[in-house]
Every structure is written in structure tokens, then in C-alpha cells.
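## Example record

The block below lists the input lines for one assembly entry, exactly as stored, with component labels intact.
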Amino acid sequence: MSRTQTRGTKPSAVSRALARDRLGVPAVLGFVLAGVAPLTVAAGVIPTAYATTGLTSIPAAFLVVAVILGVFAAGYVAMARHVTNAGAIYAFVARGIGRPAGVAAALVALVAYSFLQVGLYGALGPAAASEAATHLGVHAPWWQWALGAWAVITVLGLLRVDITGWVLGVLLSAEIVVILAETLLGLARPAGDHLSFATLSPAGLTAGGFGVFGVLAVVAALGFVGFEQAPVLGEETRDATRTIPMATYLALGLIAVVYAGAAWAMATHTGDAKVVAAAAAQGPGLLFGLGGGPLPQIAPVLFVTSLFAAALAFHNSCWRYVFALGRENVLPAALGRTGANNIPKAASLTQSVTGLAVIAVYAVTGLNPMTKLFFWLGTAGGLGVAILLTVTAVAVIAFFARTPGHHGENAWRRLIAPALAAVLLAGIVVLAVQHYHTLLGVAPGDPAAWILPASYGVAATAGLGWGLILKFRRPGTYATIGLGAHAVTAHLTPATSERTPS
Amino acid sequence: MPQMSNDPRVAASRQTAGQSVPVPQLGGTGRVADDMYLMAHNDLSGKPYLQPRALGLGLAGGLLAELMLAGRIDARPGEIVVAEGAPRVGDDLARHVLGLVLSEREPLAVAEWLLFLARTAAGDVARRLATSGYLARAGERRRWGGKRWVPVDADCAFGPLVRVRPALARSRHLTLYGACLAGLADACGLGPRMFAYAPPNATRRYLDEVVARLDPGLRYLIAQTQAAVGSAVLSQRV
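Predicted C-alpha cells for the full assembly:
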């Protein structure tokens, strides 16, 4: 056989046709923000954070964390230009630091996203129960509503009746409009007719010691979870060098402004000194009470849909990890197979079983769902993501240092920004772990304050161990770690995912 | 697009008023994409067992496999290589695909070809099957698009599931065609459907072994198809 001389003078028709099918910035931004679920954070996380931590610098924390994540993103999206993999974070760690570290990162991510997903049932149940009691006169305990939501998500996962993009888009836009309206109305009527900027000042973050900063930063990081998802669509984008960075920075900026604004409005509307007590008393009502008119009626309903969308998005994140690891044979191969209609049944069911077990435990023990399920597991998830981002920043440095020519990336993107981000994020993680009892609002030495952070130690150790076992026992599988869906092509091609510019 | 197959297997046709109307055969058309299409749809109702994008990617793999089995092209990392001077074979659709490959100025990776051909493969292959007498438009008009393609003869539509059986369990009837068909069908998510009708001693391990014995080009094509479908599932754009 010989290479055929090809003819034609126009730019490739195939490439042009493929480019038309690929995603642009709005589509990727929509995908990212759907997982971020703004109202979940604004109405769920922020009031609970005020109440549980007793700290008032939450608005400033969002701004500072946005800057830190922006620095992190410089290296992250630079690496996304060269490593396209729908598993994103753990693939980056595997390529940068090493394959056992990649498995460890994958398991930490799985635990973190599971915490986030399952935690959402703790807010979804009570929110749906209270809406049903108010408007429908239906009185049922929170866990029955949580189980209902769990069942719907399980069925959606098994039938693959995806909520279409535009439904999520409309809900998302409505959420942002509601938050902005509540924020502006709250700021228009500050407590004592004095607009206080104190909670926005970064100085407040360290006023109570650096530990306070660590705790607040984890809460803020929890709010941003989802922004790191854009590279998942790396293979689907029109222009991998532009689309992913644009979507990531736009998401970061938008989230920072919306959250910091909402948290600031809550503090300034109720009074900086009273916000903690008000948050404890009102919960999500702290946000809904900022505005008048139809807002107090609309916002709680949107809060329920937002929680549901977030639970669905994190459910998808979870099975995506399980499925990708199954495709690599790092987890049992059955988890990487699809059933009828290309539905990743086994992977999806695995996450559903976890959700059911956790809801059952909380229902039986009668623990408070809003604080001990939603906030505890949610913040634990936030900590997990902070750990992942820290390790990823290190992986970015290692990846570019290892490649001669550094793939043409400048020193800021491949070295300075990731190094800065790694140090700052590591600082946040260490401070947060040291002051975890403050984050949870429990006494120092409470078992929950060490069990939750320790779960990542267990996951990371198990991942490293399993990675090393694979190295010696199953070198074929070991070679494919971090390749995700492309694992199957690994033994036929050099260990890179095939992607040609289009 | 194809008008009439010149495949000898379809030549067995009824003479009706001097016009030749092709009749479906239990042996099939002998074309990989045709058999994959039939496997991917219910043999009675014509309802699909795959998501649209996965079906398209699988059929795209099938169309490339047809040209590879005919010796016209070969798949390698980063490019598709066209054989010079190979005999003119295939039907209109196969020639159309070959024409596309030939008209590309720069070599494109197999993954790109799969994505490109996947856009139209389902319609193209359905029309080719209709021309060969295997499918007909029938049933209620769907809310979007036209009527569904329905198999003319359910037994013929079930045929491919029989043809892949030797690739699922040890058998002396294993052919290159059957191995390639089974490998590609599994790659795009038809594994559960194949194994539902497989012999009792069928194992996934055996199928993997059969695929591993194929020549590098076909193995590469199957792996790329599997990767493309896996990526589509992961990014939830199936």
C-alpha cells in the first residue's frame, strides 16, 4: 500500500463539518454552570455557613478564593490544551505526577463528588418538604422527599432521559436573575440604613487567626465546585485552545460576583452583627427574605429545582469517574460497560446505592439533614476538591517540566501560576483540616472533625496502593491509567490521546 | 447516494412486471455496516437499541471496515491509507466513502473520520438497506422526522445476531467478517444485545481474544470506535 496523493485546494470539508458540530463557549459555560447550581450555594451553602461557622467574612472569602482559583486556572487550562481526557483532573495527575498518584486522585475525586452529591439530598429533602407543606398541604418527613428525589435521579440515570440543555439553561438563568434581584433589593435596604463593606474586606479573613481563613476558604471553594469541569468537554469543543479557558474564566468571574454579592447583601441587610443568628434562625430564608413582591414565593421553588439539578450534575460527575476507571480496568471492567442504549448502568447504579445508604442512615439516626448531611458532607466535598486542585497544580508544573519545549506555554502558565496556586491551596487545606471543628461547628476533638478529612487520606492511600499493585501485577492496565475512554487504544498507539487539530 | 446494490448476494430478486425488486436474504448483504444497523434495531419494530451518536459512530466504523475488508484502505495511527490500484469493489455508499477519503488533502485521523461519517451514517446505511430490500418505511409518522425504517423480514433482520455467534464462543465457523462485525458491534455498545442471543458458553474474554487476533488495522479501527463511543458517553453527548 502506498500513501495516495490527495487532491483539492479548499480547506478540509471534513474538518469544517466537524467544527460545526463542536461546542462553543456558551455551551461549555452552560455545562459548567449547571453543575455549579448558583441558587444551591446562595440559598443553601451561604446561610448555613454563616450559621455553622459563626464567621462573617464569607463575601470576602468568595472574592479571595476566586482570585486563587483564577491563578490555578492559568496552568490548569494550559494543560487542558495538551491533555484531552473526559476524566480531566485525575488524568492530569496521572500524566503529571505519576500513575499511582492518578489513581489516588481519582479515588479522592470520587469520594469528594460523592460527598457533594449525597449531601445535596440533605438540603433537597427539607426544602421540598417545606414547599410541599406550605403550598400543597402535604406533610411528609424530609427523608421521604429525599428518597423521592433519589428515585427520580436513579431512574433518570438508568433511562438516560437527560433533562435537556435548554431546560437546565432556563432554570439556571432564572436562578441567577433571582439571586441578583434578591441581592440588589437587600443592598437597597441595609440594616440601620448604612451600607457596610466590612464583610467584603479581605482583612476580616485573618482577623480571627489564619484558621478562620482556611475554614472560610473551604466554604468558598465549595461554592466554586464545578468550575473545574470544563476540560471534561475538551474533545467536544470547537477550539480547544480558546473555548475551555474562556468558559472556565467566565464561570469563575460570574460565580465570584454572584456569590460574593449575595453573601454581602445578606450580611448588610440583616446587619453584620446579627447575620449569624439570623442565618441560624432562617436558613435559606435569609436569602429569600431580602426581596419583596413575588420573590419569596418563586425563590424557594427555584431552590428545590436548583438542588435537584445540582444533585443530578454531581451524580453524573460520580458515574463519569467510575465509568472512566472501569474503561481503564482500574476498577472492575463491568463498571466501564454500557447497557442498552449506551447507558452506563453499572456506574450510575453504584452512585445511586451510595446515595440510598446515606439517606437511610440519616433517616434512621435522625441527624439534622441540613447541617449534618448537606453542610457536613458538602464542605467535606469542598475540602476534597481543594485537595484535588492542590495536587493538580503540582501535576501541571511536573507535566510541563517533563516535556522539552514546554509545549510552547509561557513561564506564568506552566510554572509561576501553578506554583503560587499550589502553595495557596495547600495552605487552605492544611488550615481547614486543623480547624475542621470550626467548619463543622462542633467541639474540638469531635469524631466528625477528623473522620471526614481522614476519609481522603484513606482514599489516597488506597489509590496509591492499588496503583502500585497494578504496576507490578497488571502492567497492561497500569499503562492505561489516566487515558479514560482512550484506554482501549493505548496498546495500539503511543500513550497519548489521539487528537488532530481541526 | 446508493441507488442499487451490485452485490451478487442481493441479486436474488423477484421479477415483477419486468422490474427487479430485491428480496432480503437470511445470509445478509455481506456488508458490515448493514449488519450492524440491523443488530442495532429491533428486528420487528425497527426501534433503535443505541443512542443516535453511538449508532452513528458504530456505523461509521462499519463503513470503514467494509473498505478495509475489501482491501481498499488501511487504518493507522493518525491517518487512513488508500491502496493504489485495488479492484473497484463495493456499492455506491462504499464508493462515496472512499471518494471522501481520497478527496481529503491532509491525512485525517481515524477518530476524525469516525466523527465525520457518524453524522450521516445512520440515514445512509438505512437507505442502502432499503435499496437492498431489507428495510421499508412504515408505521406512524414520528413527531420529528419521517416514518421509521422497519425491517421487511424479521428473520433476515435477526440474521446478524446469528452471524456474530462464532465470535462469542469457540466455533469452527468463525470468519474474519464475523469477528470484525462482533468487535465493532461490541465497541459501539451492542455487547448486551449480542450476548443475549449468544451460545451458553460465550464469554466476553473469548470475544476479546478473537478481536485481538484481527490484523492491526481492523483492531485499531475497533479500538478507535470504542474510544469514540466511550468519550461520547463520558461527555454525555451520545
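Residues 24-155+216-234 of chain B form a domain with the yeast vps74-n-term truncation variant fold fold (CATH 1.10.3630.10). The longest helix of chain B spans residues 216-234.
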